[in-house]
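Notes continue from the previous slide.

Worked example: a multi-chain complex. Inputs as given:
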Amino acid sequence: MLRFLVHRLFSAVPVLFIVSLVSFLLIWLVPGDVASTIADPGASAEELQRIRMRLNLDKPWHLQMLHWYGNLVQGDLGQSFLLNRGVGQAIVERLPVTLSLTAIALTLSLLLGVLSGVIASVRHGTWLDQSFMTLALLGLSIPDFWLGLVGIYVFAVALGWLPSSGFVPIDQSFVGWARSMALPALTLATTQMGLLARITRSSMLEVLRQDFVRTARAKGLPGFKVVGKHALTNALIPVITVAGVVVGILLGGAVVIEQVFALPGVGRLIIGAVLRRDYPVIQGGLLLLASIYVFVNIAVDLLYAYVDPRVRYDDR
Amino acid sequence: MTTADLTDDDRGMLGRIVDPALLRRLFRNRSFAIGFTMFVVVVLIAFFADLLAPHDPLQNNYRYRLGEPNQVHLLGTDNFGRDILSRVLHGSRVSLVIGLLVVMLTAVFGTLIGAVSGYVRQLDNVIMRVMDGLMAFPPILLAIAIGATLGPSLFNAVIALTVAYTPRTARIVRASVLVVRETEFVEAARALGAGHLRILFRHILANSLAPLIVQLTFIFALSILAEAVLSYIGVGPRPPTPTFGNIIAEGRNYIAEAPWITIWPGIAIMTTVLGLNLLGDGLRDVLDPRLRVEGR
């Protein structure tokens, strides 16, 4: 297991290199002069030169790259123009909101997605199966930010049950925090629930057909035990793979959902930076969220070995 | 050369797509039939938006701002008094054009990159590591970053989405190239003296089309969802161009007084994407039953 972990961490190195390279190269995509895009219109030549120096754009490309990686190794993601402070610090402060939103949405979508997938597979071919799968496909077809707005209209404007936007930190009031996170998390979860329900169902259908399930039934085990223990444990493996992918989609979705609900997370920071052309923040946010995703996928791979004893990484 | 001159292997998937027997099987698939119908309706609406729209989508009417749906404005008006129905009908045009361009560009680049990676062993490792790196970004985040850097416009949104979705397509093409290149008919073609390019395009790619077509249908659906996000946060085509995302972005500030501005474009997105998803599900069931939902 330890050998596998080391091997897996090692294989993440080229991926992380590409991730950091893409984030570095992003600023080269800016059409025209970067400094005059960032500066206020009518900025003086000295002003423009100062911006160039701050971004190292006055240096040749290999020195720019050296600076980028040199700073990266020291955990320095550069300086934000807008906030006038370190990008890394600004992101880390806002990371808990984004990560908790993603984690709650992941938990919700896994619970409800897997449950409905299992029910659909057990009731294969019935109206229950069909309606679950129709709902799942519908969930996959809804734009999440729009669902959030509809949620605001229904639960905040029309019914007045939940706040329409804003954030209450958890150490201030747990109830306030839960109320401010409920709609965003549910919105984010709904779209991915469908994906997980579909995978769970198709994987369960395959497992339920196999001999050992028939054996378990034949020896008189109660149905819920056959489904819950024998079939589900085996059917979970593809679900775990997809859950890894879902984390990536949720992290991307959180960026937009935070904007809709005015949650002070990394996503809101990035979109604010997008609108004001604060490139270091965009680069840093991109790099950090992608790196988190890479490490989540390593964790997912480790989880396989735990769930499925047949997976033996040591043999490699 | 006509199709009659081609052998079965030569014709590959393209030949089989226009095969009446296959078409019959496709339309007997309920998902495909419903999805195809929905999508065709959306395409027709987009095509004839000029004729169908009761008003000019850009025409302001300050006397009827945030107007409730009535007989003149079936879906109401927005904060400039513009007709929502007309804006949604025209918005479908922009969204479909963006989706179609992304699908075409992704198909070209994904096929090229995937084919080279699968066929030229020396390059495989490098290309796939780069694709892995690009796939480490949540697609929507990468598209936002690229779109924002290039500047808000229709074409830049297309570029951003193409970069975001090409790696997945390349991976799928590479996987099927790896399988097909080991088959006997490719070996036979090679023994007959066919060149690399001929083998790659006529034999291998032609027979790798099924998973690619299925994937492209889903990418079409994903691009329409993503385009709405880009427009919503201001990285897509600039207002007043009616796109689904732009209309929703304008409606967000009036969600309490005029929810219809926000609600209708969302329903339009949902219908379009649902049609494409059903179409993709049906295509997958018929063309390539081995692929399951994981393929997305």
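Summary box: Chain B touches chain A through 49 residues (CB under 8 Å). Residues 7-31+89-294 of chain B form a domain with the MetI-like fold fold (CATH 1.10.3720.10).
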